Amino acid sequence: MSYKAFTNDDYQALLNIIDDKDRVLYDEIQEEYGHDELGSVSCPPDVVVRPKTTAEVSDVMKYAYDNNIAVTARGAGTGLVGACVPIEHGILMDVSLMNQILELDDDNLTMTVQPGVLLMEIGDFTEEHGLFFPPDPGEKSATIGGNISTNAGGMRAVKYGVTRDFVRELEVVLPSGKVLTLGGKVVKNSSGLDLKDLIIGSEGTLGIITKAVLKLLPAPKKVISLLVPFPTLRQAIDTVPKIVASESVPIAVEFMEKDVILDAEEYLGKKFPDHQSDAYLLLRYDGNSTEEIEAEYEPIADLCLESGALDVLISDTQEREDSIWKARGAFLEAIKGSTTDMDEVDTVVPRSQVNEMVAYFPEVSKKIGLRMKCFGHAGDGNLHTYMLKDDLSSEEFQLRLGQAMTLVYHKAAELGGLVSGEHGIGYAKRAYLEETMDDVNLELMQGIKQTFDPKNILNPHKVFQS
Amino acid sequence: MSYKAFTNDDYQALLNIIDDKDRVLYDEIQEEYGHDELGSVSCPPDVVVRPKTTAEVSDVMKYAYDNNIAVTARGAGTGLVGACVPIEHGILMDVSLMNQILELDDDNLTMTVQPGVLLMEIGDFTEEHGLFFPPDPGEKSATIGGNISTNAGGMRAVKYGVTRDFVRELEVVLPSGKVLTLGGKVVKNSSGLDLKDLIIGSEGTLGIITKAVLKLLPAPKKVISLLVPFPTLRQAIDTVPKIVASESVPIAVEFMEKDVILDAEEYLGKKFPDHQSDAYLLLRYDGNSTEEIEAEYEPIADLCLESGALDVLISDTQEREDSIWKARGAFLEAIKGSTTDMDEVDTVVPRSQVNEMVAYFPEVSKKIGLRMKCFGHAGDGNLHTYMLKDDLSSEEFQLRLGQAMTLVYHKAAELGGLVSGEHGIGYAKRAYLEETMDDVNLELMQGIKQTFDPKNILNPHKVFQS
């Protein structure tokens, strides 16, 4: 691959498309545009373009296509695998100003948004209207475009599924600049190959999402959580398949250990409601009334106690509910605050293999000499594990990180799992996807990439590309 | 495209792969193998192969690839658009003997099946185990391979979604004979392009499904239906968005008119529980107890009455429940029995446009001079409309059919709808997909086809191919 070197003439041409110097950044580009949240890979763009309309995205893309300039899309930059880092410099397409909620359709229960709308804005908007967008990743300041691009899942996947399940229609600008509409405000579709789902989770390698029609649900009126201490983590996790197979499907089943809870307490300066155990399950139920939810969780509380739980604490006040979930929401930042630098893996394994996977992390930690912390979605097998630098040198950290990740990803594959449950592959995990995935599978992905992007100008070096 | 003419040598070669003359049919091939359920397109295969294992599918496919012979996969042949008709003759791969349920995984709530397992067999098996596979197309003798290949939806899509939402993993034999595994027993996945969803709904054009891991749910213990007569169909359908936006999401919302009900009564020789109106909504609720379901449907019954319903009949006995759904299940056969020949459209439109679409059918019927009957899934906008030959000549029927379909598909597109909600495009609807879909979209589909099947030997002339 070789791309045209970006020059002042190109800058002038982009200014002809977007006639606003505040939206075409060239001379002074903030450092943040060169990396994402985790920052393990960094590369500055030549220019940052901040479109407000699909037409602007299309015109910029067409210019880049005609002139062979690499283009990388970026939302809020909250990613953890470098998917929005412009490895070949070129144009960074920052869609954060495309932040309008375009429509609420009551009859079809959909909302139409531009890609830069934040998850927290969708949350506020739907709540105001008595509606509900179930995907619930921890990072509420992420854009919906980013969530769709990684097929983010979050905590409510046990009951409701992931982002993919709530995208009815996408408008996408192809590398050629052509604008494509995929899907529709329809519930069923058997009309040709499913290109919409190909875009979802493609991490900006096939097209730039410029509009999305999201499926909404009527909002449940009430949420109640159960905090369940267990003597051991193994007992806690062994109980999860029984919970999920019961009549009453919780919206979330999280596991957490005391050390991560203590980090969160310190980070928030607030006490967690319980300290009696080293291991907890956190279950959440929703419904239309307290009575309805009680009928759901009561047999599950009994089931937990029969499976060895020490107690079942019901969050029957909003205060307690908030304190538990605030702690849960702070885990990532709390762990980050406890060390000098870190990287993460977000493997997903079958629910039945969560214990095997969780038990393997301390083994790796000991073998490699790398402090690791883990928490995550026991109900859906998606485990977030953090590898901490502490006082290691950068070189030593990188070395041990590579060794630890190789062990973890191969173990996940052995257990029928995959590299990423929701954070994506981006740049940082490409080698591990290649190591654990069949060559035939990778070749098909490359063939599809070639079909969408024959010049390979869109987000090169990401996900599956050599 | 030109394919090798199939000879006796090829037959002998296939017998070397599958050493069983009962599973390689050459001299005497039943007429049924040349068409599907509707039979509007017909073409006999040169040979029928009936594999029992993935290895056999792979070896046959590799032979076909090396020798440039067209291959078409077939399940139970219950399709309605000619997707399993071997237009270029060649090899028909009948997977109906791959009919084993391979595993029930209680911890992950999945079952693993071969593609030839029938929907009714999955229903019986899951019921025995207190589990539930929600996709519920009317045709229970269809194979799961066929259901996945068309992304069939059925009646429960309002609450549970479609087949796509319940496929965790697929094993697929590519045109080259290579075997690929996509997805896994995992709930979340953000590990590269979503090839699994590309296979789902691809109607056998990209690969042959040889194994599927299906997501199951705990079975609801109780089902109750509401039969709701309205003065007019328009009032009935206008009520649907209000029902779906309420707190209590029904599993199904069907609409039906008296003339179709009368056809069904005659076909079944049994009376329908109500005759007071020309138009009905049929709602179905599920849950774990009668009390729970009552709490759900009671506000909906009130809502229907406020919206003009004449009555709300609760199917509080199994007998009444059976009589209603038996009638609903017989609609297709009953209409078929009322005429000499027919064809169908299964357009899907946004829920808000169902009335517009339904009101258009009598206009088309009158304009073209073709009797039409319609029923379907009001809750998900998927309308099944039948165009009846009666005493028209074959030539005249074909002529009017083409005119009527063109009008209907263009109207659907105008309303934001798509050609097919669940029956697929196959051979019969290709022209209409091409007419109503963007060229860029079609070109991408063709490019993907080329990546998977560079020799175009797998199910040629189907869906999007020229």
From TrEMBL, chains A, B:
Keyword terms: FAD, Flavoprotein, Oxidoreductase
Classification via PROSITE patterns: FAD_PCMH
Cofactor(s) the record lists: FAD
Keyword Flavoprotein: yes
Record domain FAD-binding PCMH-type: where: 41-219
Coiled-coil stretches: none
Pfam family, one: FAD_binding_4
UniProt xrefs under InterPro entries: FAD-bd_oxidored_4_C, FAD-bd_PCMH, FAD-bd_PCMH-like_sf, FAD-bd_PCMH_sub2, FAD-linked_Oxase-like_C, FAD-linked_OxidoTrans_Type4, Oxid_FAD_bind_N, Vanillyl_alc_oxidase_C-sub2
This protein's name: FAD-binding oxidoreductase
Organism: Agrilactobacillus yilanensis
